[in-house]
Amino acid sequence: MPASVKRPAKAKSAPKEPKAKDPRKAKAAVPALNGRRMTAPAHRSNDPLHGVTLETIVTRLAERLGWEELGRIVPIRCFLFDPSVTSSLKFLRKTPWARKKVEDLYVAAFPPEG
User: Fold this and answer.
1) Do 105 and 74 form a contact (C-beta atoms < 8 A)?
2) d(Cα 44, Cα 76) in Å, to the nearest integer?
3) DSSP secondary structure string for all residues of 39-57
4) Which letter does DSSP use for residue 32 in this model?
5) What is the pLDDT of residues 38-88, one digit of tens each?
6) Is 66 helix (H, G, I), strand (E, B) or coil?
């Protein structure tokens, strides 16, 4: 655009009025009880393995049954030859069918409380 051509000035608009708050987005007041906020009851999972790590599963089974019995029930090399928690974890994390067998054995050996 040549320098000699001037652009028309922008017309000034009227000042904007503040936006009205959307009542759907307003947070509902939470009733207080003795100065503390009420919270929803904690969701209780139906999964018996909720919060139990694979390491805990392998360790507790090895303590209760022993590696020899564990290898007899779930015949995988990491339980039969030079067994350790570390080697078992590596194998079970990569092998879904074996992990499922071990988890099912854990649920049978340590029934959920409650």
Assistant:
1) yes
2) 34
3) -PPPP--S-TTTT--HHHH
4) E
5) 666 667 778 888 999 999 999 999 999 999 999 999 999 999 999 999 999
6) coil
pLDDT 10s digits, 2-40: 666 676 666 666 667 666 666 666 655 555 556 666 666
How far is residue 110 CA from its own chain's centroid? 22
Element (H, E) at 92: helix 85-94
Q: Rounded to an integer, what distance in angstroms lies between the CA atom of residue 88 and that of residue 52?
A: 16
3-class SS of residue 65: helix
Q: List domains and CATH numbers for the chain.
A: 54-108 (1.10.720.30)
* pTM of the model as a whole: 0.61
Other Cβ atoms less than 10 A from the Cβ of 108: the count is 9
